[in-house]
Amino acid sequence: MKKNQVFYISFLITMIIVAFGLAAPQPFAKATSVANDFLVNNFGWFYLISMFVFVAFSLGIAFSKYGNIKLGPDDSVPEFSNRSWFAMLFGAGMGIGLVFWGVAEPLNHFMKFGATEAAADFAMKKSFMHWGFHPWAAYAIIGMALGYFQFRKNAPGLISSVFLPILGEKGIKGPIGKMIDVFAVFATVAGIATSLGQGTMQINSGLNFLFHVPTTRIVQIIIILVLMVIYTWTAVSGIDKGIKLLSDINLVLAVAILAGAFIVGPKLLTLNVFTNSIGNYVNDFVKDSFAINPFGDKSWLGSWTIFYWAWWIAWGPFVGTFIARISKGRTIREFVIGVILAPSLVSFIWFSVFGSLGLNLDTNIISKAIETTETALFVVLQQYPLGIIFSIIAICLLGTFFITSANSGIFVLSMFSSDGDMEPANSKKIFWGVIQALLALVLLMTGGLSALQTCSIVAAFPLAIIMLLCCVCLIKELRKEHPKKE
Fold first, then answer.
1. Is the pLDDT of residue 224 over 50?
2. What is the 3-state secondary structure (H, E, C) of the chain?
3. Among residues 30, 186, 368, 426, which is most buried (max CB within 10 A)?
4. Which of 315, 373, 320, 86 is nearest to 195 (CA)?
5. pLDDT band at 456, cuts 50/70/90?
6. Gap between the terminal Cα atoms of the chain
7. Does residue 138 form part of some domain?
8. Rounded distance, CA 326 to CA 89, Å?
9. Number of folded domains in the chain?
10. 480 pLDDT above the threshold of 90
11. How confident is the model at residue 1 (pLDDT cuts 50, 70, 90)?
């Protein structure tokens, strides 16, 4: 059996981190905290500039002369319908996060900055910012570049393949190429574990809030183990069966709770919030993209914007690779519209609906809701008709999003550690399924949400550099195609 260096090195690094976390939880939490403070204080500017570059580059390429180039041969056609394609990319990209933060984030910002009308405007604008064009552009960079090289240039499904114009065939198979792929694997594992840990905490908190199930590590371990069996099984079933089916279910549940929340909530306020926030978001887009508060306190920026940017970057290889895998036959313009513009609009609608549900309430209730982030959604839903039903749907949606993110991640990690094989062995999928669950448990036991956040930021830093270089590689190769497109 051919030795796979990326697989073994990635496995070794992950095991060292898991062992460190289990053997010395307090030093592990302290180490991630020190690394987080260092990166936020010294490289916050780098995250901000990088994410803006991803947005500008993606949209610029899509609406340029290169927009009609296909991710694949000129005669290739999409493998999946638009609905299933969108359902899979959206479920893999940020499903759990929307449920987790849809109510909690606007309310946290609102109370933090004085619970005034200006604070409400700020809260909604920042929520749009954190879940809009920037994160999806980070996914699009990897997805667009890898999809192009994988399907149009017949390169392996590895992040290192994108560096063919810079490193050449020998370079991408050498130490530098291996290092790029190892970074991608490790950051993917850390990024997925972050989201899975959050999802587990919120499922547990929701069950406690609704049915008095105790909020304990034992219960969280049971939740992760049960879902691990399901997400591993669906990953083994393949994209056409398990992953696609579950993504379609996600979409139905998400539309159901979104429509229901709009109907029982403050409809006029929601429409006004959506309209006003879109205006604020667009008007201040460039300014907010670079705002770093150089002469003041950066703690809020580090806890929110920098954390989010690092989170999305950490998820870039996984989601981007998965989106590339399901996007063969689509043009670059179609890809960018589907990956950036459409999901951003859904995020704006989601935050407008659920943010309005929370902001419409008395500040005493809002204060109670944000005492525990994991239960904020359930506290708010209880204030409206059919709240218990929507809460149960939300828990189901958390479970299905959890599974969708995990099984997509397993598939991608298996590709990364199988020399880019688009149909990796089931043994690899099972292996990474167990590793994901184990790492999520370690992070939960070594500091909860704080440790999850800091781990993502640390893992993301080298990937931001890799993603910027992906832009250079893609444009170098696209320029060779231009004469054919005139």
1. yes
2. CCCCHHHHHHHHHHHHHHHHHHHCHHHHHHHHHHHHHHHHHHHHHHHHHHHHHHHHHHHHHHCCCCCCCECCCCCCCCCCCHHHHHHHHHHHHHHHHHHHHCCHHHHHHHHHCCCCHHHHHHHHHHHHHHCCHHHHHHHHHHHHHHHHHHHHCCCCCCHHHHHHHHHHHHHHCCHHHHHHHHHHHHHHHHHHHHHHHHHHHHHHHHHHHHHCCCCCHHHHHHHHHHHHHHHHHHHHHCHHHHHHHHHHHHHHHHHHHHHHHHHHCCHHHHHHHHHHHHHHHHHCHHHHHHCCCCCCCCHHHHHHHHHHHHHHHHHHHHHHHHHHHCCCCCEHHHHHHHHHHHHHHHHHHHHHHHHHHHHCCCHHHHHHHCCCHHHHHHHHHCCCCCHHHHHHHHHHHHHHHHHHHHHHHHHHHHHHCCCCCCCCCHHHHHHHHHHHHHHHHHHHHCCHHHHHHHHHHHHHHHHHHHHHHHHHHHHHHHHHHHHHHC
3. 186
4. 315
5. low
6. 47
7. yes
8. 8
9. 1
10. no
11. very low
Q: 331 has which bridge partners?
A: 70
Residues in a beta bridge with 70: 331
Instruction: Work out the number of other CB atoms within 10 angstroms of the CB of residue 215.
Output: 16
Tens-place pLDDT, residues 67-90: 999 999 999 999 888 888 888 887
Q: How many CB atoms lie within 10 A of CB 59?
A: 17
C-alpha 384, offset from chain centre: 30
In CATH, what number is assigned to the domain containing residue 163?
A: 1.20.1740.10
143 burial type by CB count under 10 A (0-12 exposed, 13-18 middle, 19+ buried): buried
Question: Does residue 19 belong to any structural domain of this protein?
Answer: no
173 contacts: CB under 8 Å, gap ≥ 6: none
Give the mean pLDDT of 442-457: 65
Among 207, 204, 101, smallest CA distance to 448 is for 204
- Single-letter residue type at 105: E
Q: Does pLDDT of 18 surpass 80?
A: no
Q: How far is CA 399 from CA 10, 216, 254, in A?
A: 28, 18, 12
Is residue 24 a part of any domain in this protein?
no
Residue 449's domain comprises 5-12+29-481
| 296 within domain boundaries | yes
